[in-house]
Amino acid sequence: MSKGFASNYRVVLLAIGVLLTFAGVGTRLVFLHVIDREKLVRHIEEVRRQIVVENAVRGDIVDRRGQLLATSRTMIELGVDPQVMRPQDEAKWPELARLINVPLEKLTEIFNTKVRSADPNDPESRERLVRWARLCEEIPESLYDRVRALDIKGVYGTSAYRRTYPQGRLAAHLVGYVNKEGTPATGIEHYADFYLRGQNGWRESEKDGRQREMARFRSRDVPATNGYSVMLSIDSVIQSWVEEELDAIAAEFSPDNAVIIVSDAATGFLLALANYPTFDLNEFNKAPMEAQKNYAISSQIDPGSTFKIVAAAGAINEGLVTRSTRFDCNVAEVVYNGKPRRLMDDDHTYDHPLTVEDIISRSSNRGAAMLAMALGDRRFYEYARAFGFGEKTGFPLVGEINGRLHDPKQWSGSDITRIPAGYSISATPLQIHYGMGVIASGGVLHRPQIISEVRSASGELVYRFGSNVARRVITNSTAQEIAWSLQKVVSEEGTASNIVIPGYQLAGKTGTAQKLIDGRYSSRNHIASFSGFFPASAPRVVITVIVDNGKPRRGVAYGRAVAAPSFKRIAEKLIPYLDIPPADSAAAPSLLASKGLRP
Amino acid sequence: MNKTGTQAFVNQVLIYTLVAICLSGSVGLASVWMQQQIAATSNSIKQLEMRTAELERRRGEINADIAAEQSPLRLEQRNRAWNLGLVQPTEQQIERVYESPERRLARKRNDERFGVESISFTPTRYVAGGSR
Question: What is the value of pTM for the model shown?
């Protein structure tokens, strides 16, 4: 009979050994998984668990045609660990220095500084090994690829999203910027931060002994929600023309500051708003504060003759006068409320009484005062308020001021003669612009709108902003009456006869206000302005040009000489761009088609 | 007999033990292989996510560069540098069309087709067996 293969004791011994080994493993497992479980799990969680924040990308700011004005891009902060550098890489240092535009001597010094010496003033400080030293604050990823291609051990970068402004200085005061700390400081960046900023995500997982994530142990993953894109009503092309025009004004008249505003007459949406001086958004930290100031909303000036539309519109709207009602503007003094009032001087004398239309087109200070007197203090004040003077326009960006328009109780005896001519009142350029916008829109005051749409990162429409009407100020027929009078300003008889565009009905008002310097009105320092719209019969755009303390080579800085020509040049560019037809076909919708060769 | 019975029992135990070892080893190996596959797949997904994120970043960078190149200021610089002479159309060069552009284009096309072709019309003669 066969004994079988387990016939000797050694096999039994082997079997016992195997069983004991299993028993040992089992016992150890019981210790690991049952007895010491709590302690071990806690330790593992402390050492291996990690929460990685996934940064959301800030949304873009685009113009009304989708052109990028602000976006986020990854920038690499380049550094080095001098402890791990290899001698054989030394030959590549000059190439690295050239790529990142750092002097080779400086680069060599950084690479060779391996120990940070102790602070002699601090007894507790000791020498420390340098494990990281910055080589370059920000380089684009494409450049980082070339740096990595050099394969210099120890040189590496950390990436982070940075805000960049592809258009540079274009619409700088509107777009605003995010500062180095990542805080939205000004402009739309600040105002629309709620839409733009997005929400960071996070991921819970484990890491190995070399701090690498072990993807298989990911337990929770909350993806980041990128910020929404904000579409502005600004048009980059118009904005660029406006800024070019400001450059031309600066070169010709060396003003203290200047503002040009262009808006849609029907909706109040801004198409362009620019200030001089301005700055490059990508180099905001180098720009002086006066360049960063948005003069359109934060400077207050005497509006001058552009304000005369208020008294005229009020008097016509109340039915006190018509366009053809005449006033004797040669008289220097009138009796008002039982007291004699001396009127401001006019630049000209007139051989006949002026109609209301003439008062506007010839810019008579005395005529404007008489129209205001016809209204009375209180009603004139209420019309000025209704036109938006003395209160914020509701412009969404920070820094807007109220301007100054006192209650009639606080007026001096001469204020009723001065305020109608645009003195003893202060307004921001934006208030002046939207005051003119009341006439262009047919009698309603719009609130300035600059954001037209908000879209999600995937392009879906989140919110569309519409026209925002603050109030009706005058009737449509009154607005038309004033518009026809303003059209006469830009004619052979008016104060802006130099800006006629044949075939087009321009309407507007010149303004020249003396500047208040050391408590006295200066005869040498002026604020020149022109605010108008076109076509007068069916207004499409409102344009305002304000030049503070321009210095023409000859003569006084009148609105007609300093500001009005810029209005004309911008209007000429807008005519083909916005397809604005000539007067005889103004009412008919048209389509543009170009013909012929370039001139 | 007894000895033989004991040996058979030991044999059976050993065989069962070996089978159990083989089975548990197989299960263990399968488990390790599965874990390995899970890890490899997770790492692959992670790599793909990183690649996607990198491509998104690159796309953002390229978009920013394109936007900078398309800025009105840069286009005007190019216009001057390359002597392209591009300017806005003047009023004399603009023809305003107040009718439906589709109709106008259709009429223009038809005028060209019938007007021009009718002059140079030559009848085509088809010959049996000839190629088109």
Answer: 0.82
